[in-house]
Amino acid sequence: MNYPEHLFYTKDHEWISFEQDHALIGITDFAQKELGDIVYVDIPCLNKIIAKEAIFGTVEAVKTVSDLFMPVNGKVIAVNPLLETNPELVNQDPYRCWMIKVLVSLADDRESLLTAEQYLAQIGGN
């Protein structure tokens, strides 16, 4: 499995990439493999402020539905338009197929986020 070192991770299997005043958020390679074939992504929070650890959407796979949890406080400024017609892109490359773009505060508490090495240890990887 793939865990890019420039990203941060959550215990709930989301990744986050900080870029100046915004961040991109998606699910990890581990999460997409656990879910299986993703058939639908529902993210109804465009232009809403979402609190850290609150649910911002769901991912539906063939046999299950999983909630998506916000890694930081932020305002959702974009939802990846490719997900509406091609949710399977998350299975193909979860780190290129971001789900939401959020405005974040530079002072936001990022202490609970994991490095790639910490995340790998959490999921029992080598």
Low-confidence stretches: none
Order of strands, main sheet, comes to 1-2-3-9-8-5
Give the biggest beta sheet.
6 strands, antiparallel
Which secondary-structure class do the elements indicate? alpha+beta
User: Rg, please?
Assistant: 13 Å
Helix content: 10-25%
Overall form: globular
**How many helices?**
4
Residues in β-strands, percent: 25-35%
Q: Which H/E pattern describes the elements?
A: EEEHEEEEEHHEH
Distance between the termini: 10 Å
Mean of pLDDT: 93
Total count of strands = 9
Structure, explained:
The longest helix is centred in the first third of the chain and has 7 residues, at about 30-35. With about 130 residues, the protein is α+β, with helices and mostly antiparallel strands. It has helices spanning about 30-35, 80-85, 90, 115-120; strands spanning about 10, 15-20, 20-25, 40, 50, 55-60, 65-70, 75-80, 100-105. The chain is globular. Helices cover about 15% and strands about 35% of the residues. The strands form 2 sheets. The protein has a 6-stranded antiparallel sheet. Strand 1 (about 10) and strand 2 (about 15-20) form a beta hairpin.
Question: How are the elements arranged and paired?
Answer:
Elements: E1 8-9, E2 14-19, E3 22-27, H1 29-35, E4 38-42, E5 49-50, E6 55-61, E7 65-69, E8 74-79, H2 82-85, H3 89-92, E9 100-103, H4 116-122
Antiparallel strand pairs: 1-2, 2-3, 3-9, 4-6, 5-8, 6-7, 8-9
Question: Which features would summarize this protein structure in a list?
Answer:
4 helices, six-stranded antiparallel β-sheet, alpha+beta, globular, 126 residues, 34% strand, single chain, three-stranded antiparallel β-sheet
